[in-house]
Specification:
about 35% strand; ten-stranded mixed beta sheet; about 180 residues; VC0467-like; alpha+beta
Length: about 180
C-alpha cells in the first residue's frame, strides 16, 4: 500500500479498473498540489467535446479542446501548459508542466502564435480532496499512483488511462485493454 508521502505534485492518480464513480471512472488525474490540508488536480482524459472559443467570447481564435477537470467549481476555467518560461505567474507542478499564469498575457502569446494547442490544455472545473480524504481513498484501493515523467499530457495520443495502466504490470495491462461496459469517457 502506498504511503501518503509518495503522492506529490506531478503524480498521476489512475482510477482503479473497477471504479464506478461516474466522475472518475477510467480517469487519470494530474495532482497539482498535495499537502496535509488537501489535494487538487485535473482529470486529463475527459473531453467536454468543445473548443475554448465556444466557452469564452473574448478569446483569440484557437483550436484547443476543453477537458472536464473535475466536479469542483465547474463554472471556472483552468489551464495546464508547458510554456512557463514565457508565461508569468505560472506554477510548475512537475516535469515541465505548469498550472495557470497571467490570462491576459496568455491571450497575447496565442495571438502572436508563441503558444499553440500542443502547448496547453484547458479544463472546466477541477478535482479536489479535503484533508485526509485522498488518503482514505488510497487505503480503500480506489487509485493507483503513477509517475507523470513518462507521459506527455499535451499530445493526446491514445487512451491515456489504458496507456498508464498498461505500464504498471501485466495484470493491470490485461484489465486496461478490456472494453468499458459502461458509459464512454
Amino acid at each position: 500500500m502506498l504511503e501518503k508521502e509518495e503522492l506529490h505534485s506531478g503524480s498521476l492518480l489512475v482510477a482503479q479498473p473497477f471504479m464506478l464513480d461516474p466522475y472518475f471512472k477510467r480517469s487519470v488525474v494530474l495532482l497539482c498540489d498535495h499537502h496535509i490540508e488537501g489535494t487538487f488536480g485535473f482529470i486529463l482524459n475527459k473531453s467536454v467535446k468543445m473548443k475554448i472559443n465556444e466557452l469564452l467570447e473574448d478569446f483569440p481564435e484557437f483550436e484547443s479542446e476543453v477537458f472536464y477537470g473535475g466536479p469542483v467549481a465547474t463554472d471556472t476555467i483552468h489551464f495546464l501548459h508547458n510554456v512557463g518560461d514565457i508565461l508569468e505567474g505560472s506554477q510548475e507542478v512537475g516535469n515541465g508542466v505548469f498550472w495557470g499564469g497571467n490570462f491576459d498575457r496568455l491571450k497575447v502569446l496565442i495571438d502572436s502564435q508563441l503558444v499553440e494547442p500542443k502547448n496547453i490544455r484547458f479544463f472546466v472545473g477541477y478535482s479536489g480532496w479535503s484533508a485526509g480524504q485522498l488518503t482514505t481513498e488510497m487505503k480503500s484501493g480506489s487509485w493507483i499512483v503513477s509517475d507523470s515523467k513518462t507521459y506527455s499530457i499535451f499530445d493526446g495520443k491514445g487512451d491515456l488511462w489504458t496507456n498508464v495502466l498498461s505500464e504498471k504490470n501485466d495484470n493491470f495491462s490485461i484489465i486496461a485493454h478490456q472494453p468499458d461496459s459502461g458509459s464512454p469517457n
